[in-house]
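Hi R.,

Here's the chain you asked about this morning:
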Amino acid sequence: MNKLSKLNVSFWNALFVFGEVMSVVCAFFTALLTIGVILSWVTHRPELIQGMNWTIGGIPVQYLSDKLILSVSMCLMFLCIFRACQAAHNIMVNFRYKQIFVDENLVLLKKIVIDITCVSVVIIITVILATLTGLMTWSEMFSNLGSVCFDVLLFNSFIYLLYTIFKHGLSLQNDSDLLI
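And the predicted structure, written out as tokens:
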């Protein structure tokens, strides 16, 4: 592998590691937000707490209760994004060791497709629930769903193309290994 290829693999490897770290950090802060939202849900139950006026960062807690659905879905999305970045990182590690057409890369590409599809499903469910709870209008919902569906379809098509190329390369490599 020449120096430019090694540099390219190292760059993408560092980028995916950065994605993993940022996913964990974002999931941590989203979990903290979720705890705050759960605490705010308690304030909607007057029989549990009588006359307490809680605030988080100066915002009355009852206004945060609508965000519970969003914060839980964000935790799920960050988890899926973390798994996808981890799979991409493992693919780059395989590339570094010149293991390009191996079964593990096919499994990792499938994992990326599944994780990104899970992210899109969570986004779709969140947008629908946000519309039903009044956090967004119906026109905003249809606008968001259209862009999410298009983006995920485009990304998954690209990853499936890569999967097909790797699968074909693996079969060619197996055939050449049998000849020699």
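The two ends are 23 Å apart (CA to CA).

Let me know if you need anything else.
M.
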